[in-house]
Amino acid sequence: MSVVRRESLRRWSLVSAGVATLCLLPAAVAAWPVGTAAAVDPASLRERILTSVDQPYEGYITTDGRLGLPALPELEDLGGLLGGSSRIRAWYAAEDSWRVAELTTVGERDTYRTATGLYRWDFERNLVTLVAGEPTVWLPGAADLVPPTLARQLLAADGRLEALPPRRVAGVAAAGVRLVPEDPGTTVGRVDVWADPVSGLPVRVEIGRVGSGGGAAGRGAAEPVFTSRFLQLRQGEPDPAVLRLSVPIGAGFVDTTVIDVRNALRDALPGILPGTLAGKPRASHAATAGITGGAVYGNGFSSMVVLALPGQQGGQMVDIGRDGGGTPVPLTGAEAYELRSSLLTVLVVHGDHPLFARDSVHAWLLVGLVDPQLLRQAAAELVEAAA
Length: 387
Fold this sequence. Notes:
about 25% helix, globular, outer membrane lipoprotein receptor (LolB), chain A, 2 domains, single chain, twelve-stranded mixed beta sheet, six-stranded antiparallel beta sheet
């Protein structure tokens, strides 16, 4: 073997060893001893997590999802986030000052929160969108899946708390808490959160579905179907320059307002939704201020959302249900199709019925992290109430 070839092999061996080291580094860091200092009472840890909204940070996050969302209109991006692996960068200074970037194969999609509103920058489309106002009904995006935001949303629900063994995440000796929903109607089996025991900042979140055995044991033993965790984390103020949106020359710019969305939904609402569905009361107006084209029934993990779908959007949903693998559901006076993922159940309802008396409403959509039988019962009661 020549000296040149030996040197070349040596260099590539060093490169390969370096790559292998970088790939194994997160696992090695996670395996470092945690010690006993991270042990915290579950109720106290939950409270620290819920009040950690003022803790600034920046970091690199990965998510791993196996939710398998149904193929619904406008949900392609969400399906990728919840049904595969994603890479996210986040910078957080305050509730009204942060930036989250979803890294893609061709660039990135950024969300900026500023005092003037929410901006979305799509590199591939070269488009900036301003959402003015405070949306109360929102299609989840990468910003909703970073560990701090996701953990605070999930731990706000009711359930039984259990302590989890501490673990090291992104260099943090994190304490763990598990929330087990006690409502038998939900498909969510457990929510596991690890957080900095001092600041309360969540660093890892796992969501598991109900196990095959059902009951309390089935919920606690559920395998995770979605995980969000920091690989790199620095707690502290990010560089203010990173949080300022700079619109590239030649980029398109559009804006929308929450009022526009609310008015469109309000015009589509027949106003015949009953006070209860499947034994769950309709939430108060104050709790659902943004859902003027539908309603929320129940609370917590087993709540259900009922929405009116106007025109083309409703027609697309019916076509997907009928021709895209949806399961037909027997329903007197209407046609219905069911689509499921590992956690989510979706039921689209359409027919020649007073429920669809107004031309603007083409279908009704029932959605929830609930047992399919619960949505079927709700759909039957919805149609019966409108007869």
